[in-house]
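Standup notes, protein team

Yesterday: finished cleaning the Albula glossodonta set.
Today: Anticodon-binding domain-containing protein structure.
Blockers: none.

Input for Anticodon-binding domain-containing protein:
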Amino acid sequence: MSVSMVSVLSVHYHRCTLLLLLPLTMAHKTVNVVQFEPNKGAIGKAYKKDAKLAMEYLAICDECYITEQEKLLDENGEFTIETEGKTFKLTKDMVSVKRFQKTLHVEEIVPNVIEPSFGIGRIMYSIFEHTFHVREGDEQRTFFSFPATVAPYKCSVLPLSQNQEFMPFVRELSEALTKNGVSHKVDDSSGSIGRRYARTDEIGVAFGITIDFDTVNKTPHTATLRDRDSMRQIRAEVSELPGIIRDLANGITTWTEVESKYPIFEGQETGKKETIEE
């Protein structure tokens, strides 16, 4: 049966043999009916105790499906149905197609808009449940450990403070991340860097780039890259970071591999005072 020609519920009740229909009261209406007419004796003789399954299936088939099988019956003398994990080959002496008219007082329709058990809502709830964590030793700090491949934001860009010297690097990184197809969030609010880390962790941002005074004062310009789950940081050149995050987000590399290639960040070596003196 062509799925494009029937609703999701039609496919479902062909599998479970339950009529999932919505009755609507209507004025008298004469309609053409097409249905299978099974030869119970012939089907019973051929399939014994399983004959009931075949006849239940034939009773719920829609006109489109019946017409398709009627064509096979005329051309090949038989057609095959599958139900409850069993296959039935039906021949002309076992089934025919009956056409007639009847008057309807209630119309039964198959709804096309439903909320199936495999809806996106259940998937999202499962993801939230399995990725929600509390920081050890600090019950107030929670985070979602979304894998980078599915995290809505792959990366945050965080200037250490609102110092205007950081802004050119923020713009450079944001533009480069966009060009690399990396969804990201810039947080240049006035909160402490620790509080902003916590905020991005709460919404499951996988990685965070921090622009500090070493970024401004030293060449080549570098910035830190923080892993959300371990809270460990490495330091790399600003020009390299967008590509690193792109590869992490696409599953091409892992955080362990990144840590093996770049120096672990322990703390910035220069500060605002040195910037002013220069």
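Follow-up from PR in the comments: The chain has two domains: 3-109, 120-277.
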